[in-house]
Amino acid sequence: MNSKTQATAADLSAAVHTALGSYPEDIMEQMRRASDTMAWMSDIFRTISDEVRSGRAAGVSMVIIERRASCGEYLADDLADIANAWRGEMERAMDAAGIKRGDAQ
Question: What is the DSSP string of 14-50?
Fold first, then answer.
């Protein structure tokens, strides 16, 4: 990267931080976490579905099925809380920067 490109990248990073309240690398880390969590949830629900579809669910303890479902519920709730907090931070930063949001009334 030459010095002009580095300056432009730094300027863009600063602009993103001003607009959204987070640096691009932090936003990408949150997206990675969300993606990972959704993949875990998918695995949990796929396992439950496979058990039920294969007929093996009759031999599987309802406690095990309930634990898998509870784990999925926990991950979904946790991800929703994180995303909601992150969204609030971005909305406050956008408001402070004078950026009109699409959902603003």
Answer: HHHHHHHSS-HHHHHHHHHHHHHHHHHHHHHHHHHHH
Angstrom distance (rounded) from CA 80 to CA 23: 21
> Based on the structure, what is the number of domains in the chain?
1
Question: Does a structural domain hold residue 6?
Answer: no
Q: What are phi and psi of 100, to 5 degrees?
A: -75, 130
Q: Could you report the per-residue pLDDT of 22-71, keeping only the tens digit for each?
A: 888 888 888 888 889 889 888 888 888 877 777 666 666 777 778 888 88
Q: Does 7 map to a domain?
A: no
Predicted model pTM = 0.63
Tell me which residue range forms the domain holding 44: 19-91
pLDDT at 105: 44
Amino acid at the residue 37: T
